[in-house]
């Protein structure tokens, strides 16, 4: 690890500690101005104002990632995240689970695919295409479960999205399966219904430039409430299976 990376990690821990104490600003001293605002700080002179912790968080806690980073490094960068209001009601962060070198990456709208009924259905769906849960990598648009079962809001999704794109690049799967309307519209960049988006592969290019076939399908929660749509979901799964089998 180089010196700059070590400094970034140390500052990140310090910022997280201050935030946990409820400190939301720093005295605006020359050294802090230089760290947070770079070379454009006011000639190194203190203005007597305060520099928000949020600004330090934006510039330090989410550095531009390098090539070849691991999921563990991305999770460390995420830290005990307080970047959006979802942290106020969360029990814990749901970063992702499964094989970090999986050929199939599954992305859902929000955490919850470990819940009893939806989790069991997901397991059966994966088994149907010769995959166990530990052979795929599961993650979601946001890393905290929204309260009262609501959908994640656009601001919350935007906040988590850089980390999700880094996860995709780190896993580097052969196929991505997106489950749920919010994730489907985001990754296809089309304002259509999921029924219009499913049934075919879409083009997706990760942050490293790798092109990955992406397919969208119904979320297990939706299938539990709409049993008649399982046939369509099965057709999507078969497409994934054939793509993975094609070598």
Please supply descriptive tags for the structure shown above.
single chain, 247 residues, alpha/beta, Uracil-DNA Glycosylase, subunit E, six-stranded mixed sheet, two-stranded antiparallel ribbon, 10 helices, 43% helix, 14% strand, globular
Task: Please describe what this structure looks like.
There is one protein chain. The protein contains 10 helices and 8 strands. The relative contact order is 0.11. The two termini are 36 Å apart. It has 247 residues and is an alpha/beta fold. It has 2 domains: 3-63, no CATH class; 88-245, Uracil-DNA Glycosylase, subunit E. It is globular and about 50 Å long. The strands form 2 sheets. A 6-stranded mixed beta sheet has the order 3-5-4-6-8-7, sandwiched between helices. A two-stranded antiparallel sheet has the order 1-2.
What is the strand and helix layout of this fold?
Blueprint: H1 3-20, E1 25-27, H2 30-37, E2 50-52, H3 53-61, H4 71-78, E3 97-98, E4 104-108, H5 116-127, E5 137-140, H6 154-171, E6 175-179, H7 181-188, H8 194-197, E7 201-205, E8 211-217, H9 220-225, H10 230-245
Parallel strand pairs: 4-5, 4-6, 6-8
Antiparallel strand pairs: 1-2, 3-5, 7-8
Helix pairs in contact: 1-3
Short recap of the structure:
This protein has helices at residues 3-20, 30-37, 53-61, 71-78, 116-127, 154-171, 181-188, 194-197, 220-225, 230-245, and strands at residues 25-27, 50-52, 97-98, 104-108, 137-140, 175-179, 201-205, 211-217. With 247 residues, it is an alpha/beta fold.
